[in-house]
């Protein structure tokens, strides 16, 4: 999330500025040089984490890491002496940072369930539980892929992108919810690729989402040809993106095995696929701007009901609790 990236990078930039100021004072030079060496090692570690663990790039953080590398280059050019004690301290500091991140990982934050559609912005259809194909907010459930029975007691709506890490996590949570509330819960998945070439609602294509349109197009094509094969296609995409290295060509080859090459080619040329992705992007942005704290294009968005949205990372327990709270209780079932 961009605002978190900015805050972390701003802290790094402040440290970099402090190190530069320290060079002007005799007592601060030892700490400034040691800090520069530590920042260089820490920057290399954090770049590794972004590339291998998170698979998501923070541009502001990369700029800060670049400044740390530049700091060391300048120190070398100015012929500052690097002592053994400075190098040892920097290495020990780096080991402490890496060990702390591995041994004490920060718990994934939960979404704020109090992201509620503002009453003045909510359309009339969204002021009560929707039914049928008209879910509210202009969402027609019949136009998008769905899981669960058509007459499910409750249907949630998710805006997602296969190249979005938190979306893949949410998918696993929703699979658990579908299993726990089998026959009672429905999930409508609305394609929202974070790529401007198929989703003009986003201002630009973030790093890591270059193939978002290609993966989504293949998935939608399979759904159009054979809805019963769509779950296998989704599982292949989510698992492949988690492992890393999945290419659109690989996804397409898998899809051909599910529905046939000719059938897939015909479906891939269907202009309706592009229309669905544009519609998903527009709906996601419009709903994001209706929240009390607007979030715009941020993904994933899980609409647990027409008035409540979970945005960003969420825990499995949070998703299960949110769904269960909206299903009829056993007492309500008996009274029907």
Written description of the protein model:
- 56% of the residues lie in helices and 10% in strands.
- Helix 7 (230-243) packs antiparallel against helix 8.
- It has 336 residues and is of the alpha+beta class.
- Residues 1-7, 107-114 and 118-132 have low confidence and may be disordered.
- It is built from twelve helices and eight strands.
- It is elongated, with a radius of gyration of 24 Å.
Radius of gyration: 24 Å
Record the strand order, biggest sheet.
1-8-7-5-6-4
Strand count, sense and closure of the main sheet?
6 strands, mixed
Please, what is the average pLDDT? 83
Q: H/E element string?
A: HHHHEEEEEHEHHHHHEEHH
Relative helix content: 55-70%
What is the multimeric organization of the chains shown?
single chain
**Shape, principal axes of CA atoms:** elongated
How far apart lie the N and C ends?
44 Å
Could you give the count of β-strands? 8
Class of secondary structure makeup: alpha+beta
Which keywords apply here?
336 residues; alpha+beta; six-stranded mixed beta sheet; 12 helices; 8 strands; 56% helix; 10% strand
List the helices and strands and how they pair.
Layout: H1 2-22, H2 26-54, H3 59-77, H4 84-103, E1 115-116, E2 134-136, E3 139-140, E4 146-147, E5 154-160, H5 165-180, E6 185-191, H6 212-225, H7 230-243, H8 248-259, H9 261-268, H10 271-290, E7 301-305, E8 308-311, H11 316-324, H12 330-335
Parallel strand pairs: 5-6
Antiparallel strand pairs: 1-8, 2-3, 4-6, 5-7, 7-8
